[in-house]
Amino acid sequence: MERVLIVDDDPDILHLVSYNLKQAGFEAITADTGRKALETIQRRPPDLVILDLMLPDVDGMEVCRMLRGHESSRLIPIIMLTARGEEIDRVVGFELGADDYVMKPFSPRELVLRVKSILRRTHADRTEMLRLGKIQLYPERRQCFVGKDQIALTVKEFDLLYELMRARGNVLTRENLMDQVWGYHGEATSRTLDTHVRRLREKLGSQGAYVETVRGVGFRMASPSEE
After folding, report:
1. What pairs with residue 219 in β-bridges?
2. Which of 51, 65, 133, 173 would disulfide-bridge 218, Cβ 3.0–4.6 Å?
3. What's the distance, Cα to Cα, between the start and end of the chain in Å?
4. Domains of the chain from N-terminus onward
5. What is the C-alpha to C-alpha distance for residues 173 and 171, in angstroms, rounded to an integer?
6. What are the φ/ψ torsions at residue 168 (nearest 5 degrees)?
7. Nearest-5° Cα angle at 103, 97 to 109
8. Long-range contacts made by residues 125-128, C-beta under 8 angstroms, separation at least 24?
């Protein structure tokens, strides 16, 4: 049974989300402060974290930053759940490595679907190794290497690179990428996609040049012969 940690200082939200996750077959655990969340994750990392931003001690952004900075927790999917709806909050959240961003008030049913979508992609059985230039992608192991160096990618960054490499040079439209990577059409914005593409290029270093923008259409992975 997959474990989901819900971090929120509102007991009603903890109860609501826990109930709906348990009904969907998940093990739901809770924490009402950032410190308690970090302690829980250190003891036994969950399969996914639903994280409120406005916590009474360590805020959600800092919790996310700390999780992404530790080897044992850097790949745990994070859904940010918050009433802060400014675009800058969403962008900063994705910059820190969040995999999804849900606004309050929210639909418990939709939240559960998003949890399932992220975990399905995380655990998908993708067995073939993909290679382009010095980039080596191992879908089943969820590992990415540039040469001999392993690159730390978030769930969404990995899925984005997987979709681009799997397309083998074909152009993927923005709409197609947002639908395939985020798993639900219309929720991810072009700004969200651009943020992830930029971060992916930065992490790939010199190999990031393979991620090519096709103006007015979308993105593709250029072949080595097109450099």
Report:
1. 172, 213
2. 173
3. 46
4. 3-122 (3.40.50.2300), 130-226 (1.10.10.10)
5. 6
6. 50, 55
7. 100
8. 126/162
